Amino acid sequence: MIKLLLAEDQGMMRGALALLLGLEEDIEIVAQVGDGDEIVPKALETKPDVALLDIELPGRSGLDAAADLRARVPGCQVLILTTFGRPGYLRRAMEAGASGFLVKDGPVEDLAAAIRRVLAGERVIDPALAAAALSAGPNPLTQRERDVLAAAVDGATVADIAAKVHLSPATVRNYLSAAIGKTQTRNRMEAVRAARQNGWL
Amino acid sequence: MIKLLLAEDQGMMRGALALLLGLEEDIEIVAQVGDGDEIVPKALETKPDVALLDIELPGRSGLDAAADLRARVPGCQVLILTTFGRPGYLRRAMEAGASGFLVKDGPVEDLAAAIRRVLAGERVIDPALAAAALSAGPNPLTQRERDVLAAAVDGATVADIAAKVHLSPATVRNYLSAAIGKTQTRNRMEAVRAARQNGWL
DNA sequence: CCGGGTCCGGGACAAATGTCACGGGTGGCC
DNA sequence: GGCCACCCGTGACATTTGTCCCGGACCCGG
Known about the structure:
2 copies of one chain form a homodimer.
Chain A: E1 2-7, H1 11-23, E2 27-33, H2 39-46, E3 50-53, H3 62-72, E4 77-82, H4 87-95, E5 100-103, H5 109-119, E6 124-125, H6 127-136, H7 143-151, H8 158-165, H9 169-183, H10 188-197
Parallel strand pairs in A: 1-2, 1-3, 3-4, 4-5, 5-6
Chain A binds a DNA duplex through helix 9.
């Protein structure tokens, strides 16, 4: 019996997946969470064999939690399930020690199969996505550049960002300019978009 | 037997819902589509009793399709199922003749129940959401203001927007200024965000 | 017919943004 | 030690953006 932890914020999706996977003979869902912060505690409590994690969660990111999970719950394989097949996400997932990476397109039938393959020690990655991740190259943005860009997502002004990141306005503009240059875009908004698209956020 | 049409772009979600609803004794899924443009043709072909529509779809919006569906497939009730409980979406759904509006949070169990209630002629709407929609008031944006704002979503410059909408740059700036004023925001980005948030896009 | 609304444009101005050049500081690596 | 990358900041500059004013056009309801 494969013990599974399911982390997904959309209630309907979570419920549907839980019901579906519960129908499989060899799978038992030992925990369902809708918040990233609950992943590690629940895993420590229930010792699942596989953790199926969404990336975009309230609280902690699934990618974040994945690294922790690998370190603190050694027997647990991590399978990332996400809406967005962004190159940077895949890269980060691999660096965090994930064994598989699925996108929410594609048929449900793959899911149970992927879980079994992951448990058998295989890696499950969409080949096209892997190619995209490799061709895209690594994240060119500095930590600070990411911080500043992340603080600019919802239309904040330079002053707002400066306050949020505790920097001088002039410095913020320099980082923004650098980020714009590295993403080969023309302004903040495009830079944010490009960084998001690649999973660099 | 309730004949159901299911429109949802995420393959995994669509598959999961189809399987789940297929388990219900009195529900039969007669069509599944992942593209907004296929909704009406498939409905004309299969004459479903209820159409379960996502809003954000490739091709045509589910809200768009809903209005058409009501006009061209009279016996078919429309139930909107969306990730975002935005006031403007609910309002537009009602104006399009939808009988129900569900968000993808909340338990799966509600879904089958909602389908049956809709078919019985009831309206299914989350009360909190209905209150929000009423308190938010109607869309204050002009058609042109919406156009310009929509063309500004991905960081386009004034010149880009002007080219896309076939207007003078000066006019574009005027519309943007108006939109910023009406949304009570400080710049384009915040205005876009606010308009999206409310479903005014 | 006379408002009032929206549509479309222009001009002028202040503020915000993006760029560049420049400084100094730290820490890692050869 | 020297090199390099990143960090943090300043000042100056051109461009873009946001605002406010002003026209003229159209259509609709009173």
